[in-house]
Amino acid sequence: MPIFGPKGIDAFLENGLRQAYADDIKSRIAHGKSWEGLDWDTHEIAKEGLVRETDSFIIDSLATQHAGLLNYNYRITTPSSKIVITSDSEPDPRLIDFCRDADLLVIECSGTKEFYDTQAWGGWHMTPEDVGRIAREAGVKKVVLKHLVIESFSSDPDVSEKMAETIRSLHPDGETLVAEDGMRFDL
Known about the structure:
This protein is an alpha/beta fold. Helix content is 27%, strand content 27%. It has six helices and nine strands; from the N terminus they run E-H-H-E-E-E-E-E-H-E-H-H-E-H-E. The longest helix has 12 residues, at 159-170. It starts with a strand and ends in a 9-residue tail after the last strand.
């Protein structure tokens, strides 16, 4: 299985998964499961740009800042659609071109500016206003909010939906959803 990730991805998988779950893996193989899914082929991404190209898709990346670390955002382009998935990221104007005309943008939005002002790490993430501006200027069709850290701190069960409403007000030409486990999209 090909796995693409930042420098150290092979060591992470080996030490964080294969060794940590060695007994579980042995048991599953002894009971007829295939080793094939655990035989990964890692590719380290050390710079932004082309990650992989095939006849049916292109994956490229954009590195953005997150607390002084480079985090990679990914764009998957097929003949019929464009999908962008962001990592944790500080606002970066290059995201507008990276997300240009995306059919689906799955983007981190950990909280509001007011919430971030109460957190030491608040400046390391995008606000609903940042997301709305990026989506509008890039002409994104569908926005899905993820990494909703504010939900763990707020007593308001609608806090993420309120962030989505802010984005909708800034980007009325696109659809904005709050991510939920198991969501699927037809593009």
